[in-house]
């Protein structure tokens, strides 16, 4: 824990860095067996493609003005209502972004449109800006508990500059959170 | 930092963190374990599974042509390989070791053993050759060792499936799919060969109630509609009044119903060799034997009408009957949990372990997750959320002092020793990986994703 406290003090440009989960199992680096362990200490991403928020800011130091415009700010709102702002890049996949930041989105089928565990609600003004879901996504969404007008599967959301400021809210899918006694339909 | 952290935690035998035992190595077991490991950095979790191989219905239930659904295996593998988790296969809880022995060795025990039994139709003729439970039929094409001798006779033109859930639709699709669609999957070779020689051309999928009550999801229905070389054969009469009801339906039900209506209207290619149809308002009352009285040759269905409305619509008999000639009858009306150990309360009417939010009734330190807790419905995601719920409740109990963590529990050490004295050969996860490698190797030579080992003894042999 001491290491994290030190990091928290040093890393002030992302106040939410402390939110990064210590659970390796959600990290794509670990899953792909490319984790060197250095990611936590030095916060450097060994693989340039899998960029953490620290990585983005480091590259921003030496970046050109065009690169700055490629940052997309996204806010995740987790199941307890806590806001987690993250800095992402154009082209990032929202589900992978969530995993990088320890957000509790499962992604059981690994973005293959065979489950609904990455279900999120998209802030309404940004929902309009997303491309229409393909039929397969709609079919999977139909199985998600607490489906709303602004529901999407986050594994299908690719960030564009116009999505800057988008808020992705995690549905309260478990019985512990149901306030209206709603029980999800079996199938 | 992680390197040194791992070294510090390695001495688990002297650790005084909570030790949790999970009974059942399917999705419920793995998702419960995952959540526990994440929530408590000092928790050690052991998973016990009856078969030498893990993953439960993800391996034996999910259809071979749905490989993406099986991607969850990657997550489960991560969990099993976690340093604070260990998998013990080939251990029959209730027979090789009792629940009480597990409760003595662990701070908490979670029952996640699912539903291995089958709801019977309860009608005469149900035991005639030619009648199978969907559970057994699916187990047969998915390589479940206890179903390897099923040998279903596929030489009849018509098959009737009772039930209209996703399992029923999976069975229909596997019966009618072109062999090309299946030959590179992990379907067993003997099932593939049997299906290649199948004479089944017509599959009827029968439900008690109406189109608005159908239990399958749209993905599976769409796969039937799009199945090559097949056409839909529906009864327009079954759909009276449905078009009018569409506008008031919630989105998932509306889209599903619209797809069905489309299938009724368009039907599909008349030249198609094979056909499938949904039949509504019909309940099985008798399996009819052939002239030789030796096997099933047809099924007698009672026609129903619907009473009530909304979620509580019921089917009521009208007295009318209908006979359908068929040589293959598959009952897909639900799986069923069975009691595992006399020490565990069991509700025989609902066929679940009675519980309150995952805490087993009147039994401190005993929990349940998955189908044995809620009943055998839902997709993997449903079980995932449910397992996360149970894990959260367990953690709450730990933190509220309801579980006495001050007592040191021996965990796997004690159970492993016990099993050894009883001559039980445990299969560790690294040994499953040898079985896994062998299955992939055999599959490769057949041009398939894998060729599953069908025999427990062979699995144990490969695990050495």
From TrEMBL, chain B:
<protein>
    <recommendedName>
        <fullName>NADPH:adrenodoxin oxidoreductase, mitochondrial</fullName>
        <ecNumber>1.18.1.6</ecNumber>
    </recommendedName>
</protein>
<feature type="binding site">
    <location>
        <position position="378"/>
    </location>
    <ligand>
        <name>NADP(+)</name>
    </ligand>
</feature>
<comment type="pathway">
    <text>Steroid metabolism; cholesterol metabolism.</text>
</comment>
<keyword id="KW-0249">Electron transport</keyword>
<feature type="binding site">
    <location>
        <position position="371"/>
    </location>
    <ligand>
        <name>FAD</name>
    </ligand>
</feature>
<dbReference type="Pfam" id="PF07992">
    <property type="entry name" value="Pyr_redox_2"/>
</dbReference>
<dbReference type="InterPro" id="IPR036188">
    <property type="entry name" value="FAD/NAD-bd_sf"/>
</dbReference>
<feature type="domain" description="FAD/NAD(P)-binding">
    <location>
        <begin position="19"/>
        <end position="175"/>
    </location>
</feature>
<dbReference type="InterPro" id="IPR021163">
    <property type="entry name" value="Ferredox_Rdtase_adrenod"/>
</dbReference>
<feature type="binding site">
    <location>
        <position position="28"/>
    </location>
    <ligand>
        <name>FAD</name>
    </ligand>
</feature>
<dbReference type="InterPro" id="IPR023753">
    <property type="entry name" value="FAD/NAD-binding_dom"/>
</dbReference>
<feature type="binding site">
    <location>
        <begin position="208"/>
        <end position="209"/>
    </location>
    <ligand>
        <name>NADP(+)</name>
    </ligand>
</feature>
<dbReference type="GO" id="GO:0005739">
    <property type="term" value="C:mitochondrion"/>
</dbReference>
<feature type="binding site">
    <location>
        <begin position="164"/>
        <end position="167"/>
    </location>
    <ligand>
        <name>NADP(+)</name>
    </ligand>
</feature>
<keyword id="KW-0496">Mitochondrion</keyword>
<keyword id="KW-0813">Transport</keyword>
<keyword id="KW-0521">NADP</keyword>
<dbReference type="GO" id="GO:0016491">
    <property type="term" value="F:oxidoreductase activity"/>
</dbReference>
<keyword id="KW-0809">Transit peptide</keyword>
<feature type="binding site">
    <location>
        <position position="57"/>
    </location>
    <ligand>
        <name>FAD</name>
    </ligand>
</feature>
<keyword id="KW-0560">Oxidoreductase</keyword>
<feature type="binding site">
    <location>
        <position position="220"/>
    </location>
    <ligand>
        <name>NADP(+)</name>
    </ligand>
</feature>
<keyword id="KW-0274">FAD</keyword>
<feature type="binding site">
    <location>
        <position position="93"/>
    </location>
    <ligand>
        <name>FAD</name>
    </ligand>
</feature>
<feature type="binding site">
    <location>
        <position position="49"/>
    </location>
    <ligand>
        <name>FAD</name>
    </ligand>
</feature>
<dbReference type="InterPro" id="IPR055275">
    <property type="entry name" value="Ferredox_Rdtase"/>
</dbReference>
<comment type="similarity">
    <text>Belongs to the ferredoxin--NADP reductase type 1 family.</text>
</comment>
<keyword id="KW-0285">Flavoprotein</keyword>
<dbReference type="GO" id="GO:0008203">
    <property type="term" value="P:cholesterol metabolic process"/>
</dbReference>
<feature type="binding site">
    <location>
        <begin position="378"/>
        <end position="380"/>
    </location>
    <ligand>
        <name>FAD</name>
    </ligand>
</feature>
């Amino acid at each position: 824990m001491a290491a994290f406290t030190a990091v928290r003090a040093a890393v002030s440009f992302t106040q939410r860095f402390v939110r990064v989960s210590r659970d390796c199992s959600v990290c794509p680096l670990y899953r792909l067996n490319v984790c060197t362990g250095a990611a936590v200490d030095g916060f450097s991403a060994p693989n340039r493609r899998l960029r953490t928020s620290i990585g983005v800011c480091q590259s921003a130091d030496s970046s050109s003005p065009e690169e700055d415009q490629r940052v997309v700010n996204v806010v995740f709102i987790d199941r307890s209502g806590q806001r987690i702002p993250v800095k992402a890049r154009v082209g990032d996949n929202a589900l992978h972004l969530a995993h990088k930041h320890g957000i509790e989105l499962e992604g059981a089928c690994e973005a293959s449109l065979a489950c609904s565990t990455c279900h999120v609600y998209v802030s309404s003004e940004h929902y309009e800006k997303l491309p229409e879901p393909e039929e397969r996504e709609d079919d999977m969404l139909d199985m998600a508990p607490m489906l709303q007008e602004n529901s999407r599967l986050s594994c299908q959301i690719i960030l564009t500059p116009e999505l800057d400021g988008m808020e992705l809210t995690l549905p309260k899918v478990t019985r512990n959170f149901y306030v209206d006694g709603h029980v999800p339909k079996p199938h | 930092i992680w390197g040194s952290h791992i070294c510090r935690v390695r001495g688990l035998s002297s650790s005084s963190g909570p030790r949790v035992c999970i009974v059942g190595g399917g999705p419920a077991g793995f998702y419960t374990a995952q959540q526990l490991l994440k929530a408590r950095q000092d928790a050690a979790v052991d998973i016990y599974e009856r078969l030498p191989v893990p993953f439960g219905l993800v391996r034996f239930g999910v259809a071979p042509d749905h490989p993406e659904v099986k991607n969850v295996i990657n997550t489960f593998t991560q969990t099993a390989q976690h340093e604070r988790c260990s998998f013990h296969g080939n251990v029959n809880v209730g027979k090789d070791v009792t629940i009480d022995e597990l409760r003595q060795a662990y701070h908490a025990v979670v029952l996640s053993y699912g539903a291995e039994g089958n709801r019977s139709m309860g009608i005469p003729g149900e035991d005639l050759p030619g009648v199978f439970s969907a559970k057994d039929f699916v187990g047969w094409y998915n390589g479940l060792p206890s179903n390897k001798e099923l040998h279903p006779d596929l030489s009849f033109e018509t098959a009737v499936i009772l039930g209209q859930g996703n399992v029923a639709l999976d069975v229909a699709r596997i019966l009618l799919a072109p062999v090309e669609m299946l030959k590179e999957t992990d379907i067993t070779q003997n099932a593939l060969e049997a299906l290649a020689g199948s004479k089944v051309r017509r599959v009827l999928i029968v439900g008690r109630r109406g189109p608005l009550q159908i239990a399958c999801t749209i993905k599976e229905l769409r796969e039937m509609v799009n199945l090559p070389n097949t056409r839909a054969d529906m009864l327009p009469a079954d759909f009276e009044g449905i078009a009018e009801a569409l506008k008031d339906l919630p989105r998932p039900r509306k889209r599903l119903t619209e797809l069905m209506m489309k299938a009724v209207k368009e039907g599909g290619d008349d030249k198609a060799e094979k056909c499938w149809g949904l039949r509504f308002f019909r309940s099985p009352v008798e399996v009819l034997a052939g002239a030789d009285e030796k096997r099933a040759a047809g099924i007698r269905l009672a026609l129903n009408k619907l009473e009530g409305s909304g979620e509580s619509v019921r089917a009521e008999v009208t007295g009318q009957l209908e006979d359908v000639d068929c040589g293959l009858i598959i009952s897909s009306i639900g799986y069923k949990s069975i009691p595992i150990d006399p020490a565990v309360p069991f509700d025989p009417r609902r066929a679940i372990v009675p519980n309150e939010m995952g805490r087993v009734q009147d039994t401190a330190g005993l929990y349940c997750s998955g189908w044995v807790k809620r009943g055998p419905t839902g997709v993997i995601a449903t079980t995932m959320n449910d397992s996360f719920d149970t894990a959260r409740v367990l953690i709450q109990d730990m933190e509220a002092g309801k579980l006495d963590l001050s007592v040191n529990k021996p965990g796997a050490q004690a159970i492993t020793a016990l099993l050894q004295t009883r001559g039980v050969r445990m299969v560790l996860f690294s040994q499953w990986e040898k079985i896994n490698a062998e299955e992939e190797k055999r599959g490769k030579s057949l041009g398939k994703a894998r060729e599953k080992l069908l025999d427990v003894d062979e699995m144990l042999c490969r695990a050495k």
